[in-house]
Amino acid sequence: MSVLKRASDMLKYEGVKSTAWRGAKWLTSRSNPFEEVPLATVFKQDVLAVDWTQDRDFKAEKPVKPGGKPQIAWVISPPGRSSGGHQNAYLFMEFLEKAGYEITIFLYSAGAYPKVSVEGVKHMLSTNSGYPKLNAEYRMYDPETGLTGDFDVIVATDWATAYAAWRYERNIPRIYWVLDFEPYFFPAGPDYVVAENSYRLGYHGITIGSWLAAKLKRDYGMPTDFYEYSVDASRYTRTNDSARNEILFYARPTTPRRGTEFGLLVLEEVHRRSPDITINIAGWDMSKAGIEFPFVNHGTLQVSQLPELYNRCGAALVLSLTCMSLLPLEVMACGVVPVVNDGENTRMTLRDDPRIEFVPMSPALMADRIIAALDRPDQVEYSRSLAKSAEGGSWNDAGAHVVATFDKIIKRKKK
Hints:
Layout: H1 3-14, H2 16-28, H3 44-49, E1 71-76, H4 84-98, E2 102-107, H5 118-126, E3 137-140, E4 153-156, H6 159-166, E5 174-178, H7 190-197, E6 204-208, H8 210-220, E7 224-227, E8 246-250, H9 260-273, E9 278-282, E10 296-299, H10 306-310, E11 315-318, H11 327-333, E12 337-341, H12 344-349, E13 357-359, H13 363-375, H14 379-388, H15 396-410
Parallel strand pairs: 1-2, 1-4, 2-3, 4-5, 5-6, 6-7, 8-9, 8-11, 9-10, 11-12, 12-13
């Protein structure tokens, strides 16, 4: 989507003030971090209403529609065009709908800006290849009334929505859809504390990968289930059988846990040693980032545009200081060697896959491994083997596991 078309949509669905706010954030994020006041992303009414030291017995009740579809209230922050976490949640909502669940989505937006509307969110989703089409009903969350309606289970998607979910009066099951350890998103302070306390509310966690499930169970006593990372082989597939002399780096400077500035050090060293290697940077517009080595600036791409880029590259640098993204498996399906930071969070999440280069966070060593991946005498053959290992991959097994977990938690009786 062009910048002009996107700006036009913002004006239509959000208004002049919200569009101006987004523009100011876009500009300042390229020079200085866009500061937000503490607890700006949660309604104070929700935090004040929750006393996590008092236990509640969340348990299944008789279905609100006996013999009909189980009812889910799913509380989630407004989805973004390139938000992998939201795309993941929507993927599993689709699995649940196909399994006979009915979903009401409550959009949780505590800040004054950007201005969020149901119509604007639906329009964005309809034009984005990263999201499935759902039958769900949409509502804006109102902290004055909380969640209204009759439901069999409430799902929270991040720390702020966990407080909204708690406020629902009936003690029906609460599921916490946990995609990352969110206290790590903040320095020590109010947001860290309130985010951490969201794991003490007595919910049942469903996480992506085993690392996060183990951490929540060990540190907070949260009952957890998890589903494994997978890759959609119908989208991510190897189409280039030539030798490759390009690399990829996923950069997102507004998300510190993705280690963008550290990654740029690695890339600078790669260029110093092998200036003939083409460096591709995607995920964010880095044209004003003051990068001193040559690179191809892809900015934010649609999901449908990614496989073509991946198929030009021989190696990809993917950093994550919390929960790992899906990128290592997706690039591997396209025949690319993933180079990731070594740690319990990455090895557990990616099941210690021997095809993935787990490298200590030394810029020089990471540069070594990236260059070595391109210099392999069997680069083309090895690329084929990486892609072959992902053939036939899908999220169907993970979807079935999540549906079974929901069925177990609400004690659903199958016909």
